[in-house]
Amino acid sequence: AKERQLPDNVTPVKQKPSKELRPMLGAILLGLILFIAAVVAWCYYTVSLRKAERLKTELMDLRADGFVIRNQHGEVVFRLAFRSGSLDLESCSKEGEILSCTRSSTGPLNFFIQTVKPKDTVMCYRVRWEELAAGPAVEHTMFWEDAHWYGGSEMSTQHWPIRLAGYQEPVPYVTSDVYSFRDSFGGILERYWLSSKAAAIKINDSVPFHLGFNATERTLFFQARYKDSPYKPPPGQQPFPELSYRVCVGSDVTSIHKYMVRRYFNKPSKIPAENAFRYPIWSTWALYKKDINQDKVLHFARSIKKYGFNCSHIEIDDMYTQAYGDFDFDPVKFPNVTEMFAKLREDGFKVTLW
């Protein structure tokens, strides 16, 4: 028989898989999809695990929006949130005891947390967030949680432990007169807070520090900024705000407070002058109140000598300056301060300022 030839323009029709093969092919395809999904999930889990491990340091968990610190028993004793921006965790790396990040949601930055263990019962963390551009403020929020907190500043109404009411946007953390300005900070303040859960925080002295609070959320706002602020950057440095502080946790309140006091608050190194205890301190307030000037100070000194009184020193009291917190003499009231001090020293007086 002759072989039948198909025309050149005709394509043979492919045979369809038999009905028996279709379920098998579907199962193979489904299995392949599940296998790929499992591999992807495993890779993601492994990467996430490595990332989480990389961002953990002893007793502290760092997240994009803040960090928590636990004590040796696993209890959360300190919680803080990054209020002005969040970290880009992809830019973070850990080398030894230092965990650092180079980017945030607002741009490049210099961020690090360094773990320091000064003694067996104390664990500390040095934290630094520095913006690399002028203008933006750095703000972190510390939660009181259910602990009692102590420290901070003198207030017009003093509570122990701290009890704040209402809401206050961050304001410069500087001394003021609580009698004239009831909501201001008083003449005594420290950048230090201590909790009943044996956690403590000390803001570095170099920070252009502003403090606020939200009593409803039980939080303190720690802010660093130069814009619209009395703080000025050090000479020759860019006005890049930096918020840096040290958080320490211990086994009990007494031991952590003793450690922080030894670390940050020096004890007196010398005995005060004996005359300050033995002889009177003459204050201009007694005679002149706020109405003080150079002639009155010199007249006051002459009167003390004239009547033969002993003298520890003269205290030049309220309003020798144009504004509270200023150490420059008012040039109208005191036209020649150098001459005044020379005369007082010549007459055997020491001088202190209110």
From TrEMBL:
Domain called Glycoside hydrolase family 31 TIM barrel: residue spans: 283-354
Record protein name field: MYORG glycosidase
Transmembrane segments: 24-47
Matches recorded under Pfam families: Glyco_hydro_31_2nd (PF01055)
InterPro entries: Aldolase_TIM (IPR013785), Alpha-glycosidase_related (IPR050985), GH (IPR017853), Glyco_hydro_31_TIM (IPR000322)
Keyword Signal carried by entry: no
GO-annotated molecular function: alpha-galactosidase activity
Recorded family membership: Belongs to the glycosyl hydrolase 31 family.
Gene3D superfamilies found in the cross-reference section: Aldolase class I
SUPFAM superfamilies noted in UniProt: (Trans)glycosidases
GO biological process, one term: skeletal muscle fiber development
Keywords associated with the record: Glycosidase, Hydrolase, Membrane, Transmembrane, Transmembrane helix
Keyword Protein biosynthesis set for record: no
